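Thanks for the sequence, V.! I ran Iron-sulfur cluster assembly protein CyaY right away. Repeating your input here for the record:
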Amino acid sequence: MNLVEFHQNIEQAWDSIETQCDEQGADVDVERQGSVLTITFNDRSQIVINKQEAMLELWLASRLGGLHFAWKENDWVNSQGVRFWDALTEACAAHGETVEFE
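Predicted structure:
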């Protein structure tokens, strides 16, 4: 994947996060700022998702810890084979909000 594709994939992921949170009525604030997307919950806890351009990775930080995802076979996957979308669903649940990401 080249740098242009990397940024396109990240933007698609971030658009999807915003859309799915909105469509499922999640009580969260989703904010983009530079290379960071933040999901803020009612208790002010946050999930922080950022793009690591130098490594072509997507990073996720939440109450469950930090995870790094690389683009493999048309999906964001970490070194243990966990999909980003599954990890994000689990992270939201740990912050008290049920959102199913695809």
